[in-house]
Design goal:
This protein has helices at residues 23-27, 40-50, 89-98, 116-124, 130-139, 156-166, 169-178, and strands at residues 11-15, 32-37, 56-60, 73-79, 99-110, 143-152, 183-194. The protein is α/β, with parallel strands linked by helices and 195 residues long. It has a domain at 7-110: Vaccinia Virus protein VP39 (Rossmann fold), CATH 3.40.50.150. The protein has a seven-stranded mixed sheet with strand order 3-2-1-4-5-7-6, with helices on both faces.
Length: 195
């Protein structure tokens, strides 16, 4: 993301911040950070994570109704949260409302066209059409940067737990029966848009 636009000294909004894992990383150089999370239990964990960090707060809310003022943020981050292509237009309208001129938004999502994880994703979610997703983002003025990352787990049990969260039960069990190890190659798409 930093290769496209830095958040140092700027106002950052993390949409779907979950337990707040990324908030301290942004806070290290950002002027201010707001995490937005729709699930109260996750928002509470995120608040605990950042309670000692100045200029960081967590608000409950959704991508479709962001609890921030108009033109109040410079950089938006959404990682595997809400923005999955067709159907997320209300959230895109909110980004248009809250991002200042000169700002940028980043959305990180799966690339099901390649990698071991991509193959698993195609098995678990055959209804997702990667070409339709790419056309959607392009039509809305977003740019795709493909990235290759890797899942690394400390134990097989950790990998099993995550696979069982990510996929329907029959697919998860099939994957775990076929795959050994604790590392998984994983292709993602970084979608970005300048405002």
């Amino acid at each position: 993301m930093r290769a496209l636009d830095d958040w140092a000294g700027r106002a950052v909004l993390d949409v779907g911040c979950g337990t707040g894992f990324h908030l301290p990383r942004f806070a290290a150089t950002a002027a201010s950070v707001i995490g937005v999370e729709p699930h109260p239990d996750l928002a509470a964990i995120a608040r605990r994570r950042v309670r000692r960090l100045p200029d960081v707060e967590v608000r409950e809310g959704t991508a479709q109704a962001l609890p921030v003022p108009d033109a109040s943020v410079d950089v938006v981050h959404a990682r595997w949260a809400y923005f999955f292509g067709p159907g997320c237009e209300p959230g895109l309208a909110e980004l248009d409302r809250v991002v200042r001129r000169g700002g940028r938004a980043f959305v990180i999502d799966n690339d099901p066209t390649q990698s071991t994880f991509g193959g698993w994703f195609r098995r678990g979610y055959p209804e997702v059409d990667p070409d339709a997703v790419e056309r959607f983002w392009s039509r809305h003025g977003w740019r795709r940067t493909p990235l290759d990352i890797c899942w690394r787990f400390d134990s097989r049990a950790d990998l099993q737990a995550v696979v069982r969260i990510e996929f329907p039960v029959p697919v998860a069990e099939a994957i775990l029966g076929e795959y050994d190890g604790v590392e998984v190659d994983y292709a993602v798409n970084l979608w970005s848009k300048a405002f």
